[in-house]
Write a structure and sequence with these properties.
alpha/beta; Metallo-beta-lactamase, Chain A; 7 helices; globular
């Protein structure tokens, strides 16, 4: 039976965006097929329909690669045998597989009664099956899929182990939550890096701009134009320099510049 929470959008003949959408959430996974293996970038909240959707697109062995270890990107990992993420996100993985932590995170900034209701409604989604063969890459790693290579690009900020995946042959960059149209979250005190670190990640992406044409994010509208990199870099620099313009979005303090926003802790050190 088709799961209406998943919709497939072909990017190329061998590359697919898989949108996971419910009444309260939206996220994106990506399937990249080589001649010998397929790479599934992120697994979202992992409803059963994900496995069937992927099987309907390829019969190749599937490797999972997470852009970072947040629950809404890892919860479907257990549907697949081989799973990879950056070694610096092991601590984040431990937090996001702890129901007490994710329940608190879900109700962040909301009144206590609302937190209780949300925790009850989403209690099934707060459990993460951690089975599978987990492996960890560092800042330099390449997935060889058979006449197709996908390189890890370290982009710490949202989490210490956040990465993008670069497919130079197809000129595609997959950014997870490092770069989305709406904004980037750096306010999670137990998880996020400073604005200076995030800005350095944007500089790294700038240096690679000749290698890709479009950016495929973890949430919201897709694809994202690579000119957003410049906006995020400028916004991060303004925070570090103490020149940012701040506002409140969804109850979170954020710096805004042009089309983007960066959420920050209430008292971030402007020196990064």
């Amino acid at each position: 039976m088709r799961d209406n929470r998943y919709t497939v959008y072909p990017i190329t003949e061998t590359t697919f965006a898989i949108e996971e959408k419910t009444r309260i959430s939206q996220g994106l996974c990506y399937l990249l097929c080589g001649k010998e293996k397929a790479l599934l970038i992120d697994t979202g909240l992992g409803f059963k329909g994900l496995r069937e959707t992927v099987k309907g697109l390829t019969s190749l062995p599937v490797i999972v690669a997470n852009t970072h270890a947040h629950i809404d990107h890892i919860r479907g990992n257990h549907f697949f045998e081989e799973i990879w993420f950056h070694q610096k996100d092991k601590g984040v993985f431990a937090l996001h597989t702890d129901r007490r932590y994710t329940r608190k995170l879900l109700g962040e900034g909301m009144p206590a009664p609302v937190q209780v209701v949300l925790g009850w409604v989403a209690k099934g989604l707060l459990s993460v099956n951690t089975s599978g063969q987990y492996h960890y890459f560092g800042d330099e790693y390449i997935f060889h899929l058979g006449e197709r290579e996908v390189a890890v690009v370290p982009t710490p900020g949202h989490t210490p182990g956040s990465v993008c995946f670069l497919d130079r042959s197809e000129r595609l960059l997959f950014s997870g939550d490092t770069l989305c149209e709406w904004g980037v979250l750096l306010h999670l005190t137990k998880e996020s890096c400073s604005s200076q670190v995030f800005g350095e990640s944007m500089q790294r992406l700038q240096s690679l701009e000749a290698d890709f044409d479009t950016i495929w994010p973890g949430h919201h509208s897709f694809p994202v134009d690579k000119s957003y990199i410049d906006d995020y870099l400028t916004c991060a620099r303004k925070i570090v320099q103490g020149k940012a313009q701040y506002g409140i979005t969804k109850g979170r303090r954020c710096a805004k510049y042009n089309r983007v926003l960066i959420t920050v802790p209430a008292k971030e050190d402007v020196n990064g």
